[in-house]
Amino acid sequence: MSHERDPKRDGLAVARRRFLSAVAASGAAAGLTGLVRPAQAANPDNLPPNEPEWARVLGPGVDDRGYGLPSIYEKHVKRRWVPWLTASSESTVNFTPLQDLHGFVTPNGVCFERHHSGRAEIDPEDHRLIIHGLVDKPLMFTVEDLKRMPSESHFYFCECAANSGMEWRNAQLNGVQFTHGMVHCVHWTGVPLRVLFEQTGLKPNAKWVLAEGADGAAMTRSIPMEKALDDCLVAYAQNGEALRPEQGYPIRLVVPGFEANMWVKWLRRLEVGDQAWYHREETSKYTDLLPSGKAYIFSWVMEAKSVITFPCPEKPLNGPGYYSVRGLAWSGRGRITRVDVSFDGGRNWQTAKLQDPVYPKCLTRFEIPWRWNGERALLVSRAIDETGYVQPTMYELQKVRGVESVYHNNGQQVWEVKPSGEVENVRLRYVNA
Amino acid sequence: MSVCATSMRKLFAGCALLVLAQAAPAAAEDLGLGVVPTPEQIAGWDKDIRPDGVGLPDGSGTAEEGEPLYLEKCAYCHGDFGEGVGRWPVLAGGFDTLSEQWPEGRPEKTVGSYWPYSSTLFDYIWRAMPFPEPKSLTPDEVYAISAYILYLNDLVEYDQRLDKTNFAQIEMPNRDGFIMDPRPDVPIPEKPCMKDCPVDTTVIGRAGQVEGATPGEDVQPAGIEMYLGE
Question: Where are the domains of chain B?
Answer without folding.
Answer: 47-169
